[in-house]
Amino acid sequence: MDRRKFLQTSAAFGLIAVLPAAAKEGIGEQKPTTALSGTEFDLHIKKTWVNISGKPVLANTVNDMLPAPTLHWKKGDVVTLRVTNHLDEPASLHWHGIILPYTMDGVPGVSYPGIMPGETFVYRFKVQQTGTYWYHSHTGFQEQTGLHGALVIEDDITPDVDRDYVVALYDWSDEDPDTIYRHLKVQSDYYNYHKRTIFDFAAEVRRYGLVEALKRRAMWNKMRMDDRDIADVTGATYTYCINDLQKHFYAKPGEKVRLRFINQSAMTHFDVRIPGHKMRVIAADGVAVKPVEVDDIRIAVAESYDVIVELKGDTLIYAEDMGRSGKVYAKLGSNAAAKVTLPEPYPYEPLTMVDMGMGNMKMHGMKMDAMKCGGAMHTMKPALAKPIPKTPLPKKEGIAWTMHAMNPQYRLDDPGVGLRSVKRKVLTYADLETPGIENRYPDREIVMHLTGNMERYIWAINGIPYYESEPLEFRYGERLRVTFINDTMMNHPMHLHGMWSDLEVGDKIVRKHTINVQPGSKVSLRIDVDATGKWVYHCHLLYHMGGMFREVKVIS
Amino acid sequence: MKKMLFLSVFATLLFAGGGDVLRYQVLFDRFELQKSGTKVWDVSAYAGYNVNKLYLYSEGEDSSWQNELVFSHAISPFWDIQAGIEVDHEDRTKSFGEITLSGLAPYWIETRTKLLFGQGAVGADFDFEYDTLFTQRLILNSRIESRWMSKRIEDIGVGKGLDYVEAGFRLRYEIRREFAPYIGVSFKRNFGQTKQIAGEQSESSLLVGVRFWF
Question: Does A221 touch chain B (CB under 8 A)?
């Protein structure tokens, strides 16, 4: 057993304090997050005292900043990043969504061995893109402990904005992430305080009558599926944060403000709005899209959206988690002392049969709650001119594959659980289009089922967790179609390193680095395999990553 | 018994879980004082991985108890098969081999169904539990357990045939997930030969206790 393993195990068993007293000397306090620009960057991964929940605790940070410093790059520059690890455990930094050589990608065990304690690793690569991205540790659960920050690469989408802000959203816990993971493993509903009570059932009996109410429950109970399981980790342990606990973004009425929303959370999908204002979405995952005006945006873990707000007066940036267990907000306007009223939180919505992959139709004579609002959901089925040869992948039925979505649909215009009853314009993938992408017809297709077992808290792809899997093989130069079928009741934001994912929205394309796959749904995307080497493809929910993860080998 | 212990530990290590993390839990599901003065405990503890775990169960009241050591292997999403030994004590100590199906049945019913072999007898043991939530923290646990034995084993107070049926209702308040005081009531009724051996016919008792885990 190596030292790290020993420390982890000992900590998990509560035998020793996580940090020896001697190591606490010389630990600094949190500094405000600032921007660094140029082509040379010195980044120091270290322990830092932070106070987010009201009590001082140790975080892992870059240069004592949480979030880590915002790095400003320019397309065409060769950037050099010297990253020194001052922790007593290995660390890493991964540049999320950045196109670069695989040895610079920062995934321990795949791109490189990681950065050992006391060592400096020098990343050097040419910046080939523009937009808003982020970076984070790819080692164990370190990302949850504070190692995440914004990347801004200058673009020319909006030369005329008056203000330009990064809005990093994330979930912080004073609990050690190993403890959070153990809680989930021992009791997967540990953090769920929205479970069904008998009063919920009583209300359904009053509403539908006893027989109908029992029928509605039958399928869920037989399958041992919980319609209240929206998120695994909730506000019961998380404090939701904007930037370095920033409370105010300055802007004057009449000004055009560009907000670069980045979801740097470990586990939290955020629903974001700016009361009294429309948001014009101009980029998704860093890439310019045809502008679209919306009231609400759900930002899945690891996604980013750039929006323009034309400020009318003092307002808020207001975000709540998808499971309605908490919120975070910051003022936006000219007056930091302005009195602003908080909007009503959106109602809690349980999952529906649609999220179980039962299709969009009436089932067993029941009306879908989801169907009552917002009209019929179009499936946004892509038109395929000719069949695409499929390469079968290994599958394993068993403990890591509890549910099979019987009729998974493309639900790209589904706002998702929690936003279906909201009578405002919610951004969906169906609203997005990336112009100017050559959409080659796919040469080949692979199908991956996102599978899991909530009771045992196991996550996998095709029933096979990462540690039992073989790498996926991509062929250099091919246009690969990937279809995900989500056989679970959770959202899974799927992220491929090193290559773009061109999401199929009907016959349109949305170019992204992270694609959220809603419960019981399917999505298809196309990848230009234009990078060599070894990469990874995984669910970006931190506590799913142990299993719902694959290495990708590009073969020529 | 030593041989079984060794084999169980060996089997758990042998089938250790690759990238899967080792974990453990010690759960005092019932730890209570009944109105009659009887002290009751029901503890389960495990260490292991997704597929393979080593479980220790201990259940008893005052000076009579049943302890089990089993190797548990996940066979399907919701079910584990368990094999090991059970040691029962009343006047004397007797041990059995056991094979158990443990898991979550449809409608969220936690069950353990056990087959016992030993002392020239075959036995079966059933245990069902269900949690009803009044609020997110106020939870009613209903449980029923029963045993059947093919032969009279007087040393541990068991008669031939249906031995006993025990039912209980415990209302707990989860101050934390790990710590929940409760009040409740339990009913036990002996049947057939067991009535003659154990003497008592049926009993019911109010109780107070705490459910906790670490």
Answer: yes
